[in-house]
Amino acid sequence: MHVLRRQRETRYGLYTEAERRRRDASRWTLVQAILAPFQFAVFLVSLALVLRTLMTGEGAVAANASVVIKTLVLYTIMVTGSLWEKDVFGQYLFAPAFFWEDAVSFVVIALHTAYLVCLLSAKLGETQLLWLALAAYAAYVINAGQFLLKLRAARLQSVEVAP
């Protein structure tokens, strides 16, 4: 009986050659490239509204609405990001190349979801709710930084591999 052996690709940096080709061919790559800066813009607007409300006591409705919008954008980018990961790495989450980014993403999602639960159930007062939003935003900034470092690593890898 003849045993077929898979040829293993060497991983140089973030992607193997096959993963890089799948990344470049995936429609989710473009979706992520559009959603990530959009989410950051939503974050900046929401952060300003939340801080304004905490400092002045005014604009709570706008601040809360902006956190809800930010959370919905976060859910969207998480779902589309998992579809991208499936296209590129063959699994929806926790591919070895993005394990820690995905792990921190779940902390970010948990904090944003806790905010929504507290908002809808009125479990927290206005100030505590906005502090919870800031905690979620701090985790988001850490996670965004992780992804920016991966993006930089991918670009450096592309330069090294380019003919």
Largest sheet: none
C-alpha Rg, in Å? 19 Å
Share of helix, binned? over 70%
Decide which structural class fits the backbone: mainly alpha
Q: Your description of this structure?
A:
- The chain contains 5 helices and no strands.
- It has helices at 17-25, 27-56, 60-89, 99-121, 126-161.
- It has 163 residues and is an all-alpha fold.
- It starts with 16 loop residues before the first helix and ends with a helix.
Describe the SSE topology.
Blueprint: H1 17-25, H2 27-56, H3 60-89, H4 99-121, H5 126-161
Features of this protein?
163 residues, mainly alpha, 5 helices, disordered N terminus
Give a brief description.
The chain is mainly α and 163 residues long. 79% of the residues lie in helices and 0% in strands.
